């Protein structure tokens, strides 16, 4: 079973005290490329989250977004330095008295003075909060992984179809190959007779025919190509998705197809070689998105 590297999973949880939404997206990549967007209170959990993703998703360009919100949070988010505010206000009143100016805006000016308003630093998340967030992340990762498996089933059908097309073309090549050898023999014999008439060494001609027949023989390539196709389908059916391994097998399939094309020296066979190359390119293109 293969898996696609394209996936998506989103989960929202609410325990009555807090709400969390986790969203995981993944695209194809040669390595694991993580992009995390976490609330500041969970920044110390980044390594643990990375390990969770690495364990389940393995490869791909993965982005995780976590949104956390406490329900009915009535906590005051900032405090005031009262002593400093009084000092500012007192000094401002003295300046106003000396300048015989109004006190109308002194309160706002003193409140806006440096270090009077102090934001409360966000405290670390509680264990309960982290448990909720971790659960949401794990479920989102699981959904993303299931999405990948579903996409993999679709890709698997395409790969099977492409391999069947290559095998069909290979069968046509096998049928044409026996006729091709006879064509080579007749062509060589005709050329010799055209040049020398009947005055040639028949044994020598037979040796030359055997030499060229061996030189252009594609039997081994046909056997290896069929074996590579069988192995590709075998790896495709394994429980563990292995896109890299399938990529290596596809390279070997391409090598055998190219050798058949270069050695065959036959127009009809070349048509089927082109068809096999076309299907192989489709395989390689889709393999870029296989885990």
What is shown here, in short?
By secondary structure, the chain is an alpha+beta fold.
Topology readout:
Elements: E1 7-14, E2 18-27, E3 32-37, H1 46-57, E4 60-70, E5 78-80, H2 82-99, H3 106-111, E6 117-119, H4 127-196, H5 202-215, H6 219-236, H7 243-264, H8 267-287
Parallel strand pairs: 3-4
Antiparallel strand pairs: 1-2, 2-4, 5-6
Helix pairs in contact: 1-4, 4-5, 4-6, 4-8, 6-7, 7-8
Explain what this protein looks like in three dimensions.
With 291 residues, the protein is of the alpha+beta class. It folds into three domains: 7-74 and 126-148, Ribosomal Protein S5, domain 2; 78-119, no CATH class; 152-287, Up-down Bundle (Four Helix Bundle (Hemerythrin (Met), subunit A)), CATH 1.20.120. The chain is 62% helix and 14% strand. The protein is built from eight helices and six strands. The chain has helices at 46-57, 82-99, 106-111, 127-196, 202-215, 219-236, 243-264, 267-287; strands at residues 7-14, 18-27, 32-37, 60-70, 78-80, 117-119. The strands form two sheets. The chain has a four-stranded mixed sheet with strand order 1-2-4-3. A hairpin with a 3-residue loop joins β1 (7-14) and β2 (18-27). The mean pLDDT is 87.
């Amino acid at each position: 079973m293969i898996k696609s590297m394209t996936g998506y999973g989103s989960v929202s949880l609410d325990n009555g005290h807090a709400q969390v939404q986790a969203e995981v997206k993944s695209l194809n990549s040669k390595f694991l490329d993580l992009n995390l967007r976490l609330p500041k209170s969970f920044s110390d959990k980044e390594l643990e989250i990375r390990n969770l993703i690495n364990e389940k998703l393995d490869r791909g360009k993965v982005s995780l977004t976590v949104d956390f919100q406490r329900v009915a949070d009535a906590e005051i988010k900032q405090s005031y330095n009262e002593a400093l505010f009084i000092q500012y206000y007192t000094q401002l009143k003295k300046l106003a008295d000396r300048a015989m100016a109004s006190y109308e805006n002194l309160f706002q000016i003193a409140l806006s003075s440096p270090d009077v308003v102090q934001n409360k630093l966000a405290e670390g998340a509680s264990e309960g909060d982290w448990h909720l967030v971790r659960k949401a992340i794990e479920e989102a990762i699981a959904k993303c992984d299931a999405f990948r498996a579903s996409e993999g089933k679709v890709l698997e059908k395409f790969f099977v179809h492409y391999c069947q097309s290559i095998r069909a073309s290979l069968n046509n090549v096998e049928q044409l190959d026996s006729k091709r050898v006879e064509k080579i023999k007749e062509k060589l014999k005709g050329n010799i007779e055209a040049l020398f008439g009947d005055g040639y060494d028949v044994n020598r001609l037979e040796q030359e025919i055997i030499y060229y027949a061996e030189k252009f023989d594609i039997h081994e390539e046909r056997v290896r190509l069929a074996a590579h196709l069988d192995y590709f389908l075998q790896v495709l059916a394994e429980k563990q998705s292995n896109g890299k391994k399938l990529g290596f097998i596809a390279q070997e399939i391409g090598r055998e197809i190219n050798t058949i094309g270069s050695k065959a020296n036959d127009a009809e066979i070349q048509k089927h070689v082109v068809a096999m190359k076309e299907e192989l390119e489709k395989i390689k293109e889709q393999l870029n998105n296989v885990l």
